[in-house]
Amino acid sequence: MSRSKFFLLVGTLSLLGVARADDGYRLWLRYDKIADEALRQSYAATISEIVVPEPPAQGPGGFGDLGTATVAAARDELSAGLSGLLGTTIPVVTKASRNGALVLGTPCSNPDLLALVTEADLRAAGEEGYILRRVAIGAEHRIVLAANRDIGLLYGAFTLLRQLETHQPIGQLSIVTAPKIQRRMINHWDNLARTVERGYAGQSIWEWFVLPDVVSPRYRDYARACASIGLNGTVLTNVNADAQLLTAPFLQKIAAIARVLRPYGIRVYLPVRWSAPIELDQLKTADPLDPAVIKWWTVKVAEIYRAIPDFGGFLVKANSEGQPGPQNYHRTHADGANLLADAVALNGGIVIWRAFVYDAANPDDRAKQAYSEFVPLDGKFRDNVLVQVKNGPIDFMPREPFHPLFGAMPKTPLALEVQITQEYLGQGTQLAFLAPMWKEVLEADTHRPAADTTVARIVDGSADLQRISAIAGVANIGTDRNWTGHPLAQANWYAFGRLAWDHTLTAAQIADEWTRQTFSNDPRVVAPLTSMLLESREAVVNYSMPLGLHHIMATGHHYGPGPWVDDQKRPDWNPVYYHRADAKGIGFDRTATGSNALAQYAPGAAKPWDDLATCPDEFLLWFHHVPWDYRMRSGKSLWEELCLHYQHGIDTVRTWQKTWGLLQNAIDAERFAHVQGLLIRQERDAREWRDACTQYFATFSKMPLPAGVEPPEHPLEFYEKAVLRYTPGWSAGK
Ligand code: BDP
Q1: What's the confidence (pLDDT) of residue 731?
Q2: Contact 400 CB / ligand 1 (< 6 Å)
Q3: Which residue, of 130, 153, 321, 581, has the greatest Cβ tally within 10 A?
C-alpha cells in the first residue's frame, strides 16, 4: 500500500471511530482522542488550561501533607489525559489566564479558591475527598478542583477525566464527595518467588529479586490505576506469609515500592508470619505475652517505620489452614492482635486480623467456626485493630449468605474481605463480573436490633460509630500485559475500588462507566457489553453451584467440578461434606435439625431462611437438605430445577458468544479475539460442570434429565477420571 493510501485508510478508520489496536495495558485510563467532534469541541471550550499555583516558597502552609509529588501526579495525569482526550495540548500554568481555566488547590496552596467553595463543601470533602465544580466568575467560567489535602486533588483529577472518558456533560459539573470507607485496600496473595496464590494473570508484578536496584515502571502504572478508583492501601504479599519479608534487605525493597506508591496516596501494609521471631532470630517462642517476643516486635516495628515512615500496618492470618498463631501458645486471637497493635500504635499503624479460621479438630459445621471463635472476643481488641471477615462464612463461593460475624461484633470494627481474583468463579478464564455479588453482601441486612445495620453500614463504621473502617479485595493482578488475564476481569479491579469509595453505586453504573472507559462509548458496545457483565455472575452460579450449592469444585486448583471428591484429609475440604447428596435429597441442613448455623444470625435474618417455604431458592441447599421431589415455587421438582439451572447457565454463555460476535467491528481486534476465544472455553467449561454434576447427582436422585436439558457429552466416569493440569496459576503449587 502506498503511503498516501495508508494514511487515507487510517484517517477513514478513525473518522468512522473504528477502534485502534489495544493490548489492554492501559486499563480504563486510555485517554484516546474523543472521536465525536462536537463533543470534543464542547469539552475543549469548557477546559482551556490547567492551573496549578506555585506553592508558597516558605513558611507554613504549602501543599498538603503528602507534598508536591501528589500534586505533580494530579497535574501530569490531567495534562496527559486532557491533551489525549481533546487531541490538543492543554497547557499547565500557575495563574488562571483565560475562560475555562481548571484551577486546582487546597486551602493552603491556593487561598483564592476559598472564595469559590464553601466551608461546608470542604467539611464534606473531609480528608480524602474533593470538590469539582464549574463556577461563573463574571462573564467567565472556571472549573474548580479543591480539596483539603493533595490526595483529594488527585482523586478529583481522575474523576474529571472519567467524566470526559464516559462522555458526561460537564457544563453543570458539581461534585462534592468523600469516601465512605477509610482504608480501601488491595490484598496481594503474591509470594516472594513471584508465584501468586490464586493468581491467574501471570507472575507477581513485584520483582523482589532485583528490587531495590530495579524499580519497574509498572509500579507507577499500578499506582495510577489504584488511585484512579480511590484505593489507598496495599498488602504487597500473601497472607500465607513468609517471615523473610521482615528482614532488612526486604524492608529496603519494600521501601522502594512504597516510594513509588506514596504520591498516589497508597500506603504499604505487610502480612505477618506469626513465627517470624523464631524463624528470623531464633527466639524460643512466639507467645504474644512473652516479654522477649513483645520486645522483638517493638524493635522490628521501629525498623519498619525507619524504612517506610508511612507504613500502614499488619495483616495477619493466624491459626488458620496450618499457619502458626497465638493459639499455639494457648493465647487468643485478641492477645496476638493486641501485641502487634501496641507495637504499631505509636506510629499510627493498625492491625487487620483475619477471621478466616476453621479448625481441623473441630467437628462442628465449618460455616459456624469463625463466629464461635471471634464473638467471645468482641470488645477485647485494641482501638487500632480491625477484624477482617470474608463476605460469606465458607470461602468466596459463587454465592453465600453474608457472614454471621457482621451481625455479631458491635464493639469491633469489621473489615469486609472480598476476592477480586475469581478463585471459584472461573479464575482468569471465565467472565464473571463481581460487582453484583459484592452489592448483594453490602446491602444484606444483618437485622441486628438497631436502626440500620446492613453489612455496608457495619463495614463503613456508621452503624456503630467505629473509629476505623476498611474493605479489602484480594487482587487479580499479575504480569500479563493486560494485568488481569481475562480482558474483562479488569472490570472487577475497577468495581472493587469504586464500591470501596462509594458502596451505594449500583453494579449497573459501574459496569457502564467501566465499559465506556475501557472499550467504547458507542451505544452498540455499551448496552450489550454491560448486559453481559451484569448477567455473568449469576450465569456462573447457575452452571457451577446453583440453588445454594457450594464448595463442590475440584481439589487443589479449584477450577471445574469435583462433587464426588471425598478423599481429602480434612472432612471440610471434601465437596461431599457440603452437598450431602443421598437417596433422599441434597443440601446442608443448617437449621435446628442440622448444624443450626442459622442460630448465628439475628432472628430477622434467620427467619426467612429457616423455613423451606420462605427460603429463597438461591440459598435453599445452603440451609436445607431438600428431597429430590420437593415442589419448588416454579412448580417443578428440585431435581428438575437443579438440572435446568445448569442448562440455563450454559444458555446464557451462548447468548454472550452471539452478542460478543456483533462487537467485532466496534472494538479493537486484539481484545475482540481474546474474549471470543475465552467465551468458547467458558461454554465448554459450563457444559462440563453440567454434565459432571447432573450425572453425579443422578446417582442419588435416580431421576432422568428433565426436558430442556441436553444429554451429557461423556459418561460420569470420564469426568471423575479427568485430571486437569496446568491451569493458570498452576505453578503456585495449589
Ligand atoms: C482460600 C484459598 C487459599 C487461601 C485462603 C485464605 O483457597 O489459597 O490461603 O482462602 O483466605 O480461598 O487464607
Answers
A1: 62
A2: no
A3: 130
Cell output for 350: 493498625
Instruction: Count other C-beta atoms under 10 Å from residue 286's C-beta.
Output: 26
CATH assignment, 26-177: 3.30.379.10
The answer to which of 325-329, 332-336, 498-502, 728-732 has the lowest mean pLDDT is: 728-732
Average pLDDT of the segment spanning 604-631: 98
Mean pLDDT lowest for which of 78-87, 110-119, 369-378, 682-691? 110-119
Q: Which CATH class is domain 542-588+625-721?
A: alpha beta
Within the chain, all domains assigned CATH 3.90.1330.10 are found at 542-588+625-721
For ligand 1, say whether the CB of 417 is within 6 Å of any of its atoms: no
* pLDDT (tens digit per residue) in 460-513: 999 999 999 999 999 999 999 999 999 999 999 999 999 999 999 999 999 999
Q: Please name which of 443, 423, 428 lies closest in space to residue 507, comparing C-alpha atoms.
A: 443
Q: How many secondary structure helices (H) and strands (E) does the chain include?
A: 22, 16
Closest atom, ligand 1, to C-alpha of 419: 12
Among 164, 169, 174, smallest CA distance to 78 is for: 164
* Span(s) in the chain for CATH 3.30.379.10: 26-177
Residue 317 CB less than 6 A away from ligand 1? yes
Ligand 1, atom 1: closest residue by C-alpha: 395
What whole-number distance in Å separates Cα of residue 479 and Cα of residue 497?
20
* pLDDT at res. 460: 98
CATH architecture of the domain with range 183-504? Alpha-Beta Barrel (3.20)
Q: Give 335's contacts (C-beta < 8 A, 6+ positions apart).
A: 288, 289, 326
pTM above 0.90, yes or no: yes
Active-site amino acid positions: 321, 395, 423
